[in-house]
Amino acid sequence: MSRLGTLYGLGVGPGDPELLTLKAARILGQVGAVFAASSSKNDYSIAEAIVAPHLPAGTQVSRLSFPMTRDKAVLAAAWTANAAAMAQVLAAGQDAAFITLGDPLLYSTFGYVLPLVRALLPELPIEVVSGITSFQAAAARTGQVLVESGENLLIASGVDDNGRLRRALETADNAVILKAYRSFPRLRSLLEELGLASGTTFVTRLGHEGEAVVRDLADAPAKPHYLSLCLIKRGKA
Q: Which of 78, 88, 111 is nearest to 9 (CA)?
C-alpha cells in the first residue's frame, strides 16, 4: 500500500486572515490540497476566502458542498460523498488540509466528516490545529471579559429548543450563544424573559464586510446573518 497523506483539520478563525495561527499558515504553505466547506446554495467558501492570502500559487482547492438542511438522509449522503472525495486524495499520498471557520472541533463541518474519513482510512495520520473562535474574537473586539474568578461560561447553540436553552441559561454566570441567526426573535424574547437582554451584546459578520456590534438587543435585526452570536454577562443584567 502506498503512503497515505496526512489530513490536517485547520481552524482559520472567524474572518480576519491575520487571525490565522502561525502553525495553520505554515501547514497551508506545505500541503498540496485544501478542502473547503461551502453551502450547496452557492459555490463560495468563507473559509477559502480567509486563507487565500496564505495559499501558495497552484494549491489545489476543492469546495465540498454541505447542504443547509435538517433532512438527516440528505446530510448523511453529503457527508459520505465528501469524506470519499477527501479519502481519494489522501489515499494517493497527498497531504491535505480541511479548513473550517473558528475551531475544527466546535460546531464545525470537520467534526462530521472526520469519523467517516477515519472509517475509510483507519491508518490515516490526522492532526487538528486549533483556531481562534468567533466568540473569543468577539470578546476581544468588544472588550468584554468572558469569565473571571469562579464564574462559569456556557457555550450554546441558538438552534437549540427554548426549553433546554432556558434551563442552561438559568444556571450560567456568563454565556455565548452561537448560531444566533435562526429564530432570533424567539431567542431575543427568551433573553428578555430571563432578564438577560441588558447584559447581552449581539455581534454579526465579525471580521467581514458589514461587521456590526449591537449593544441593545432591540436594535438587532429580526433576521440576522448566519455569522451572528450573542455574548451574555449576567452581572450586567
A: 111
